[in-house]
Predict the structure.
Amino acid sequence: MVGSILPLSLHQVEVRKRGKRLLGPVSVAFPSDGFTMVMGPNGAGKSTLLKTIHGLERTAAGQIEWNAPQQVVRARQAFVFQSPVIMRRTTRENVAYPMIVRGMQKRAASELAQSWLERVGLADAAERRARVLSGGERQKMALARALITDPELLFLDEPCANLDGSATREIEHLLQTAHTSGIRVIMATHDIGQARRLATDVVFLHKGQVQEHTPAPEFFENPQSGPAKAYLNGDIVE
Amino acid sequence: MSLSWVFSNAGSLNVEALTPKTVTMNDILQGLISAFHLIVTLDPDLIEISLRSLYVTTSAVAIAAVIGLPFGCWLAVRRFRFRRLTIAVLNALMGLPPVVVGLIVYLLLSRSGPFGVFGLLFTPTAMIIAQVVILTPLIASIAHQAIRDLWAEYHDLLISLNTTRGQRIRTLLWDGRRALLTAALAGFGRGIGEVGAIMIVGGNIDHVTRVLTTAIALETGKGEFALALGLGFVLILLAIAVNLVIHSLSKTEVSGRW
């Protein structure tokens, strides 16, 4: 790919809020290819890590190094939130919105949005108000809205947290397709089974620190850090 | 009872008005009959002052909305040093006494005032100016509250999509249009019923600056309760009609939406 924004590396990155350190110092490198799962107990800093890399959180210290200028970096990534932001528009208008913001003509953006809705299986809901979509449909819509900009890097913050089995399976299938088509994915999850199914490598966070960053098979067979072992064993890690 | 006859005597001192008259049920009934009579006969004076009321207030609401809606939105989106203070002042200005606004606009527009050369005092334009001053803080404040909630909802997405400040404001104004319509209607409601400011800067001149509210004040002062009530009912009907028309045009308040 010409002018890739990856690889990406964090050097001693810290995030603080009201004097409390939420994350870091974190040093971790993400190569150009892969499906990284960010795992860890609640409050470990998974969301904060994702948002910090994406640029939604201000860093208190450290650097995030990209392989491209900041302007390009911002435009080539997308973020799917744990509870998707539903704009007060139709489903298709929701999906077309990122392209409208980028200056695409309304009609072209609408057609592109329609094709993405077909890909995620929401074509029937195109004309409907996005507010009436079910939880799973909302998340699929959010995924289409993220993928329509053709990002190089996709962040997902526990996209299946409130979904049932079949919706989760659909989302996972879409994510795998996206990854196979060359999109770099960094995703936070609680679900160990989901991590096993999707991950190529795992970043395990505990109390705002990276405990380990290991290839997936190794992580699940033989985790290096104490908290990760306990977490995979099903113990309650605090 | 012809309205024009009553108005032609407006200047002369009415002795009856000096001795308070007791209002009876009969007066209210008379008011209803009078209102009905004025409406069905399409009394030309009534039409004239109703249209002037509408003209003054809709113009003022339009101008106040053009200023107040984007300002309220900008205030919700932008973080700056005196933001809290600005919002506090804006909320305080919502309760601006119309009489004081009228006085200040009067002083500004009077012959010897800074804008005296334009000769605007005692014209409908002066009344519009005074109402813009009253309505803009109200509309901006209601818009700000509505947009602030919407912005909290959209914040992460719009930041994530790298939108410019202008794009954010346009998106919020469009997606919050229902709440903003409510803000404009609240402004209309305040404007159409306002009497203090437009009485001072307009002067309640027959065929020039007389509107429904100033006419009611005049008729009440003269003890013409029936006519005053009649005008009052017309005013209320007008306010309801405008609200209904706008709601049906914008297809809000229809079940199944949002």
Observations:
- Residues 1-13, 253-258 of chain B have pLDDT under 50 and may be disordered.
- Chain B has twelve helices and no strands.
- Residues 124-160 of chain B form the longest helix (37 residues).
